[in-house]
């Protein structure tokens, strides 16, 4: 008689709930592609693995919020995606990134999407990320959206959906690498880190070089320094891709050219600063534009990612992205958006406010889960306050249909328990093609029942592995 494999504590009565669980088909029934890793965790011991991962991340100083920030918490149970699942996801991601890149160019050029009635003019004209200084200005090469980090969820039927687009300064790729490094060391069922780091190096450098082809000069990662919340990532990516890590005062502009203080010409800037605008609230050039705008106009530098990209990840654009894929690519989207409602439209606004208790309300320019009202769990008083806020400023908010995020086994108190997760894969575009880094970063809500996965709101991370 065959012996049943040993599984970690909590597997035998694991509750898959009402939604889709990544690792269990039903209570106590493990999906086949998760058996090896769960057996390995049972042999290693959940607590032992958790402690080992924590120690490694602390030794490597993997933190959010600068050198004195919070430690990055990684759960020992990795998320596994089959080759079929990955192919399905990446097909949709490639479409979406190409369409969003075309949209940014269009909005700073002919505005075909508006002329063709695909997106209302009021949606774009109200965006603070529409940069008048860029009108008609074309990159030397490559893509405006050279790096995208989209937030992807799975609904109760296991279908991938895009919750948010991040094409200004997407973060998390180096944290995904760190998660894989730490988990692979403690749960030795998957050896991919060296290949993953090399993949990121190649894709990042190719995307940067494509923005300014056939030119000699330094590839630099421009950072705010240790005070930036993703300082660890800036250092790690510069190390992995062999980039010059510099702060603004280490660059100088000479007319239409940019150079390091030692006179070395700059070929391409990978911007990781919090500032990403051309002009500030008073209409004056930002320090970033003082450095970069004239070289961009002169065609002497490349930029990753471009000024003006925020017009594409403005939350009020979400309701129209699927149609933008159809417009620019002439294809049906393989990866669709979570249904999102434009509250400036009077009819839509009235319908949304009437059933706000069934929806999720988000600030147009919010991030990290801040300012979100989750209607199904909100009190009557909170909902009434939210309605008043929307009526006062309809353009400042969007509403989305709620998605019951998929769950994933997570170590809690020495046993496996379900916790909600999302996925941030990273796509690199060289202007001609989009390639997606295998895996990405899975974020997990460490509080039972919570669907707020952001690290800034006590969320954690998981290694994310694509099986071949």
Question: Key features?
Answer:
single chain, 468 residues, alpha+beta, Dna Ligase, domain 1, 2 domains, five-stranded mixed β-sheet, four-stranded parallel β-sheet, globular
How does this model look, in words?
This protein is an alpha+beta fold. It folds into 2 domains: 81-330 and 405-466, no CATH class; 340-400, 2-Layer Sandwich (Dna Ligase, domain 1), CATH 3.30.1490.270. It has 13 helices and 24 strands. The protein has helices at residues 35-44, 46-59, 83-107, 112-115, 121-125, 173-186, 193-210, 231-241, 287-298, 310-313, 321-329, 346-354, 380-392, and strands spanning 24-26, 29-30, 63-64, 70-71, 74-81, 147-149, 151-154, 160-164, 218-222, 244-246, 251-254, 257-260, 266-271, 302-304, 340-342, 360-363, 373-374, 397-400, 407-412, 415-424, 426-429, 434-436, 441-445, 459-466. The strands form 8 sheets. The protein has a 5-stranded mixed beta sheet with strand order 5-24-23-20-19. It has a 4-stranded parallel beta sheet with strand order 10-9-13-14, covered by helices on one side. A hairpin with a 2-residue loop joins strand 1 (24-26) and strand 2. Helix 2 (46-59) packs across helix 6, helix 3 (83-107) packs across helix 11 and helix 6 (173-186) runs antiparallel to helix 7. It is globular and about 65 Å long. 46% of the residues are buried. The model has no long low-confidence stretch (mean pLDDT 91).
